[in-house]
Amino acid sequence: xxxxxxxxxxxxxxxxPVRADTPWTLVKAYPHDATAFTEGLFYLDGALYESTGxxxxxxxxxxxxxxxxxxxxxxxxxxxFGEGIVNWKDRLISLTWRHRRGFVWNLADFAPRGDFRxxxxxxxLTQDGHSLIMSDGTAQLRFLDPDSLAERRRITVTxxxxxxxxxxxxxxxxxxxWANIWYDxxxxxxxxxxxxxxxxxxxxxLRKQAGVTDSEAVANGIAYDAERxxxxxxxxxxxxxxxxxxxxxxRG
Length: 252
Description:
Elements: H1 4-15, E1 24-31, E2 38-44, E3 47-52, E4 59-64, E5 70-75, E6 82-88, E7 91-96, E8 101-106, E9 112-117, E10 124-127, E11 132-135, E12 140-144, E13 151-156, E14 158-159, E15 162-163, E16 167-173, E17 176-181, E18 186-190, E19 197-202, H2 204-209, E20 219-225, E21 230-235, E22 240-246
Antiparallel strand pairs: 1-22, 2-3, 3-4, 4-5, 6-7, 7-8, 8-9, 10-11, 11-12, 12-13, 14-15, 16-17, 17-18, 18-19, 20-21, 21-22
């Protein structure tokens, strides 16, 4: 597992000065596969697309929102540990954790189309309509050309001038990059131009409602339905996926 002791120390140091000010309300809870070690999540055309991790248990899947039923699935072969996913046109792009190798699939049927390489670890992907945005576990986010998958640029994510690392699952929401923080219940709202954290969303109460007690069952997974302005969040091995209504601006 990912350097648990260092992460816990880092989580404490980050959490201490941070106050999550973005208000939100719970709209609805949906079923979620409790065996899914969620690493990536996005919403498209009425369905959720999810990737799961752990070596020998990794997959990508299309999931019915209301029932949680798996509609389509592709196993990621050993020795790969599946990580983030994103859609681009008729493709689905996925990362692996430590093998520096990503995969390209047909979005329609998950048939393999190719692979690509990157330096460092692969954690998460989202897209802003122009670039793919990738996290690697550090405070940096990479912007990739969506067709060639070559890196274009990077930003460093900061809060009060200090780097924010452990950026995990990503989602592009209302012109911002939202990021789960590994081993934290806070979601960072990031300015994609400067990398500065605009504000925080704390979903600690949802982790309690998901009924998880395992320390590895962290909050991870953000999906956005732009057409209906709906936000969905979940976590690793959570039995529930939650729709929440999030204020556009922080208090004050």
